[in-house]
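Hey, I was hoping to borrow your eyes for a little while. No rush at all, and the record is pasted right below.
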Amino acid sequence: MRNYTLITQFLLMGIPHTSGLENVLFTLIFIFYIFNLPGNLLILLAILTSSSLHTPMYFFLGNLSVLDIFFSSVSSPKMMLCLMGQDCTISLQGCAAQLFFYHFLGCTECFLYTVMACDRFAAICHPLRYTVIMNHRACAIMALGTWLGSCMHASILTFLIFKLPYCGPNEIDNFFCDIPVVLPLACADTSLAHRVSFTNVGIVALVCFLLILTSYTHIVISILKISSSEGRRRAFSTCSAHLTSILLFYGPVVLIYLRPASSPWLDSVVQMLNNIVTPSLNPLIYSLRNKEVKLALRKALIQGIYTGE
């Protein structure tokens, strides 16, 4: 038997090779984080207050807005405190909470994009049966399934990672706790946790991606069959925002989790884009090219101004 002195906290080292850039990084993260909160809240407000947006597509978009608010809050506040020169340590329990919520919300987003792709498939490929297929009960079950399934996924990963002993070193080469940077610090056999986490994350991402790819293959085929160019343009425009968000989401997932070799600097930069920048861009992506959302936002803001007076 070996004697272990178990550590009770980790030291977040931030993004590697960025010494001296603390003020620049803090400013960038603060701007994106502050923009993210009102942006997603406005999208949510528009969906809740406008009866014309009470459809399956906007129901799932509302879920995405709620998710993006929480997702960016997993790591941003602690990172900004650290960049301000405050305490950069995080307790073992706090680290476990960060890892759980990161994978819980990240997996929920992955499932949600898949459900949104299935919704577009039903709307474009089966327009006459759309309201029957995507009824209120089906939408509620899909939304609940995404949240519950993600919770189970994150619980398994968190249990496997933090049932291992950690006895030093305690320096994490990142700005928050995640599997690639926490697991190497364990002072026990990590092969099972490595295999399960790689397989779990890989299978979830791959299955969701294949479902999205299948849905959009059928969508493109159906759109190309539309005779009028205006009809094709309108059909493509309803999918463009969703496709943009999917690319922004899956790019970092592939770079971080499905590469054979790890690069701490690249992982940190890509995760910062995924955690902070993408949630801030989603309100722009879904509102700039969507006349219904812009009109609903305008009405909600005007109504709020008149109510205030």
Remarks:
- The mean pLDDT is 83.
